[in-house]
Amino acid sequence: MKRPALRRRLRPTPGAFPARWDSSLDDRNGFWRNVSPPQLFVGSFLLLIFLGTLGLAYLPGLHAGPPLSWTDSLFTSTSAVCVTGLAVADTSTQFTSSGQLFLLLLIQLGGLGMLAFTSLVIQVLGFRLSLRAETLTHGASRSGPRVDLKRLTIDVVVFTFLIEALGAIALWLTWGQELGWAEAWWPAVFHSISGFCNAGFSTFGDSLVRFRTSKATLTIISALIITGGLGFIAMEESAHYFSDRKLPGRRRMSLHSRLVLMTTLALIVIPWPLFAFFEWTETMKDLAFGDKLCNSLFMSVTSRTAGFNSIDYSAASDSTNFLTIILMTIGGSPGSTAGGMKTTTFAVILLLAWSRIRRNSTTIFASRSIPDDTIERAIGLAVVAIAITTAGVFALAITENEPHLHGHFLPRMFEAVSAFNTVGLSMNQTTGLSHSGRIVTILLMFLGRVGPLTLAAALVIGRQRRRHYRYAYEDVVVG
Question: What is the DSSP code (8-state) at residue 369?
């Protein structure tokens, strides 16, 4: 005789939820299982921007003057979460200490990413990361080396707080005598976190212009910007590589990390003398020789990612501003707090061009061949980034069509490129943007932070059927 199948029966206990609650829980679990990693990523930023907007608009005690409007609150929250640094409200005068702390919290969460903190909490509680979380965490580095997720997540948080603490101490020691030891600690903490997260927000109304003759200040901020813009995987691997240099049989550094380090170094060293040449007798004409070199180096560092400025870009030459636009477009490295096209994308495209000039069938770097799908992805990212930037420039040209702005195309282009690549530099155009121009800038900042391809993947609902066939080839004439 066949025994009836055993069925598990829910037995509610005193004080517990009723059995029907478990059914709704199953429904919610089913919903979360259907949420893709790109949707989680985009959703986390949208949620954080929304909460930041509510806080800036309605929380008491954040504003030194009248509260921000809804549009300005949304703009400020988006700029902080997307670690951009463009501001329609002066952080030094329109926010109290509590308001600046609220902004700093948004910057920290947006810089590291909400999921880094979520992953850390899950692991501390003793649970294992889900496959979705692992996929999302590897999303930015899927073409790079595979590392242990648990160790990487913990190292990211520990390393971040350690570097920010060291930067804050160094800035406090630098500013203590000038600002007062009791007053210098908060600007030091704020600028250390803002610098490492490549946010560009400052508690000083003129950013770092007042410290243009302080070599220590510019050097410390530059070090924080570079460290935050390298990418956590490249930093993790570099730290282990150099710490194990005396051990026999150590592993070679991955192609990804080598490309990141070499490209970053080149993008700092090559523009350095160009900025010095362009501004030597312009915005830096009153500085001493050493200060001119230091400010030129700082411009080379901050242009790609951070948004701090030690000169007035509205008074800079067109050559300087156009070189800055190029560097802002390239941006930082994958998996970092920086935006932009990314250094590896730029390097891969240059390597592809060099290989084709030499008539090589494969793209080679450091005695390794780069896969074709990686090259195609790099080209696709570059094309999409340029297309969105072009659309943003065109949109700002339409919205900011006041008579006094006619013929001032470069500032609007500068603003759009800075917003999309989450840099934060401006030619003093941000506060004068119209309502429509601010909405355009908000969209550019958000698109630049989450990535246009990630946003497109997040908007896809359901599974897409893959074609198991291809159409016939037919050539076209190009060039």
Answer: E
